[in-house]
Every structure is written in structure tokens, then in C-alpha cells.
Amino acid sequence: MEIYTTEEVATLMKLTTRTVREMCAAGKLGSFKVGTEYRITKEDIEKYIKKHRQG
Fold it and tell me: Which of 1, 7, 10, 54 shows the greatest Cβ crowding within 10 Å of its Cβ?
């Protein structure tokens, strides 16, 4: 299982870290917390992309 930080996900998805944190906090992007920081699995990123893919 690959696990990413919000900074890594922001880079991968070409978003700001703030946007990624907000998506995690709102439950739009699957994640879990380690202390005060969110961690996101590769599977959660793939689920988000599949759900929001257009076309």
C-alpha cells in the first residue's frame, strides 16, 4: 500500500496543499490522520479520479 502526504497528492493532482486538506476534511477524498496531518492512499486517489472522471 502506497501512502502519500497532502503535499505529494497536491503535486500529483496539480492542486494546492490547502485544497487537498479541504477535500480530506470534507470527506471528498479518502484519507486518515496521523497526528494533525492527513495521509492518503494510492487507492483513495484512484477512487477519487474514477468518480470524478468525465467522458
Answer: 10
| Residues facing residue 39 across a β-bridge | 5, 32
Q: What is the DSSP-derived secondary structure letter of residue 14?
A: T
Cell 495521509 sits on residue: 39
Domains of the chain: 3-52 (1.10.10)
CA atoms within 13 A on the CB side of 43: 3
Cα–Cα distance, 22 to 26 (Å, whole number): 6
Question: What percent of the residues of the chain are helix, what percent strand, and what percent coil, each to the nearest 5?
Answer: 50, 20, 30
CB-based contact 19:34 (threshold 8 Å): no
Summarised one tens digit per residue, pLDDT across range 11-54 is 999 999 999 999 999 999 999 999 999 999 999 999 999 999 98
